[in-house]
Amino acid sequence: MFTENYILMCEKGKEIQKEKKNFDNGDWLYYLDNKIIELVYIPNSMRGMAQHRFDDFQIWLPTQEQLMEMIYRIIGLGKTHLYGVMQEILKFLGQEYKDNCIPDEYFTTEKEKLLAFVYKNKYGKIWIVKNWEGK
Question: What does each C-alpha distance from 95 to 47, 70, 104, 122, 134 come to in angstroms?
Fold first, then answer.
């Protein structure tokens, strides 16, 4: 479900980690102390309350659905325009990585490509050799 590369992308992604302020049902965390990925369950009675902040030993792993929500906000399309979203992502991959590599050399899953798209458009960084770099 989560590749080592995706976990590393999330771990190195300090900006996106700061955006996640509260846990909710369906969120995934990666615990660095014992290398276990867990689904975080928040009872309904605690929703909306400030859960404890992420500490240094855990990393939020955005789901594909959470990444797509971010992408829809970034490009301003309604959820019915999936074709337009996919065109934007493919255009991004072709433009940003044509001189650096073949995208498949850096990304083995669609989730990794979606995170790269979010990172470029929100923070102006691309994933190069196991690190986020500004352009």
Answer: 41, 20, 14, 17, 15
In 20-130, which residue ranges form alpha helices assigned H by DSSP?
64-75, 82-97, 103-106, 110-123
The pLDDT tens digits for 59-108 are: 889 999 999 888 888 887 655 567 777 788 888 887 777 665 555 677 88
More confident residue, 43 or 6: 6
Query: Which range of residues forms the domain containing residue 54?
Result: 4-134
Indicate yes or no: pTM above 0.90: no
Going from the C-alpha of 98 to that of each of 33, 92, 95, 103, the distances in angstroms are: 37, 10, 6, 8
Alpha-carbon distance 7 to 25, whole Å?
A: 20
Average pLDDT over residues 98-126: 82
Element (H, E) at 40: strand 36-40
Q: Domain tally for the chain?
A: 1
